[in-house]
Specification:
Catalytic activity: Release of any N-terminal amino acid, including proline, that is linked to proline, even from a dipeptide or tripeptide
CATH superfamily of the largest domain: Creatinase/methionine aminopeptidase superfamily
Number of domains: 2
Radius of gyration: 25 Å
Largest sheet: 6 strands, mixed
Protein name: Probable Xaa-Pro aminopeptidase PEPP
Function: Catalyzes the removal of a penultimate prolyl residue from the N-termini of peptides.
Shape: globular
GO molecular function, one term: manganese ion binding
Structural class: alpha+beta
Number of helices: 15
Strand order of the largest sheet: 4-3-2-1-5-6
CATH class of the largest domain: Alpha Beta
Strand content: 5-15%
CATH topology of the largest domain: Creatine Amidinohydrolase
Number of strands: 17
InterPro entries: Aminopep_P_N (IPR007865), Creatin/AminoP/Spt16_N (IPR029149), Creatinase/aminopeptidase-like (IPR036005), Pept_M24 (IPR000994), X-Pro_dipept-like (IPR052433)
């Protein structure tokens, strides 16, 4: 087995995560007497239908269990360092339709827990813990994720305000197993991106490219998508979260194939996400304007990635991306004026309006980023991560340059900013739409590790698109 396969052959480190969360609670001034109580996502039926809704496990529950079973519970006894998983017992009527569920013996072998019990025993277990702690135990729960039938009699307090944020902060730093899951999600997604590029050669619509991506993910073990894929051809790429994915790859006026496709898509592997963006040409070769913008965005990304290491201030990396963008757009003749003035006036925000990246893990926009969307500085307002990056975190680096009339025209209509943009040169670039390049980066003590293997050099991408 490879190193990746050998890591994933082990158990998801639920017990270590439970200890980490308990330490996080204690660091906030909470005592060591108590429990962490979490519930899995419930099975819910589709409205007006007898079929279950698509299942997505609650992330806090998975973080402390590694369990994807619905309708389950867990208790971590902080005093005893004991993690107990409660799973639904067999229902004879359900077995007829769905087969036998996982048994307690099977669950004990699969999950990193001390004990597995049936779900009807959860209240008795809670009562026993309260009794043994003589009224000193606190139950830490997520307030809106507790069943009405759950009982906490005998606990001195049911704390609903602390657990979710502590888990969110703990999730920022990934252990070896979590990084392996993210790498696996990236490896599968890289295959899917290659398949999408190859499919574009015969495709006539964005949805055919999306279909190739999703099919490849499923075939390699990533049945779920980390998010709804973005497949945007031509000017559709100027919409940051474009999601229609149903436009023709042929221009209705010229009857020619559009210049390029932006695909932002990632598979999900055992709840862990990939988030990758690539741009590729339709027809095998980038048109001159698209190539120029692609080269600029790739330079922005590569320089920012090289800055990454433990403790780096994320705002500094984001600001550097804007500095590179300004120089590049000036070289193309789109912007004019002194670099420092362009930066001070935030002119580059017209072309790069979003944050440089976000934490990645069980959620695409993962927890712990501490954004400040009230920031009045337009260059930093949409940053999803603020502050210093810790070793063990995984973050996306996804600079982009976009030609979106809705965003750029206010700059053109303002007497304060219109002189900085050359509209004659800009006219040639509207058809580019947008270029974004995104990789998933693991921060280490000495630097970084790029988990994303999808091709991104111009030569690699063009060779696949030919």
């Amino acid at each position: 087995m490879t190193s990746l396969e050998s890591i994933l052959a082990g158990k998801y480190p639920a017990k270590a995560h439970a200890r980490r969360v308990a330490e996080g609670l204690q660091s906030r001034g909470h005592g060591s007497h108590g429990i962490i109580y979490l519930e899995a996502q419930k099975t819910r039926l589709i409205e007006d239908n007898d079929e279950a809704m698509p299942f997505r496990q609650r992330r806090p529950f998975f973080y402390l269990s590694g369990c994807l079973l619905p309708d389950s519970y867990l208790i971590y006894n902080i005093d005893l360092d004991e993690l107990t998983l409660f799973i639904p017992p067999a229902d004879p009527e359900a077995v007829i339709w769905s087969g036998l569920p996982m048994s307690a013996v099977e669950a004990q072998k699969r999950y990193d827990v001390d004990c597995v019990l049936p779900t009807p025993e959860v209240n008795a277990a809670l009562s026993l813990i309260a009794e043994n702690n003589a009224g000193k135990a606190v139950a830490f729960v997520i307030g809106d994720q507790v069943s009405d039938s759950t009982r906490f009699q005998g606990f001195v307090e049911v704390n609903t305000s602390s657990l979710q944020s502590v888990i969110g902060n703990c999730r920022v730093v990934k252990d070896e197993y979590e990084v392996a899951l993210l790498r696996k999600a990236n490896d599968i997604s890289a295959k899917a991106h290659v398949a999408a590029i190859k499919a574009s050669k015969s495709a006539t619509n964005e949805r055919e490219i999306e279909g190739a991506f999703i099919a490849t993910c499923i075939a390699h073990g990533a049945r779920e998508q980390a998010y709804h894929p973005i497949v945007a051809c031509g000017e559709n790429g100027a919409t940051l979260h474009y999601g229609k994915n149903d436009d023709s790859l042929v221009d209705a006026t010229t009857k020619q194939r559009k210049a390029s496709v932006l695909i932002d898509a990632g598979g999900e592997y055992s709840t862990y996400c990939a988030d990758i963006t690539r741009v590729f040409p339709l027809g095998g070769k980038f048109r001159p304007e698209v190539r120029q913008i692609y080269e600029l965005v790739l330079q922005m990304q590569m320089e920012c990635i090289e800055m990454l290491k433990e403790g780096i201030q994320w705002e500094d990396v984001h600001a550097h991306a804007h500095s590179v963008a300004i120089k590049g757009l000036k070289n193309l003749g789109i912007l004019r004026g002194p670099d420092n003035e362009l930066l001070e006036k935030r002119i580059s925000v017209a072309f790069f309006p979003h944050g440089l990246g976000h934490y990645l893990g069980m959620d695409t926009h993962d927890t712990g980023g501490n954004p400040n969307y009230e920031d009045e500085d337009t260059m930093f307002k949409y940053l999803r991560v603020r502050g210093h990056l810790p070793a063990g975190s995984v973050i996306t680096v996804e600079p982009g340059i976009y030609f979106c009339r809705f965003i750029i025209e206010p700059f053109l209509n303002s007497d304060e900013t219109n002189a900085y943009i050359n509209t004659d040169v800009l006219e040639r670039y509207w058809s580019v739409g947008g270029v974004r390049i995104e990789d998933n980066i693991h921060i280490t003590t000495n630097g970084f590790e790029n988990l994303t293997t999808a091709p991104k050099t111009i030569e690699e991408v063009e060779s696949l698109a030919l």
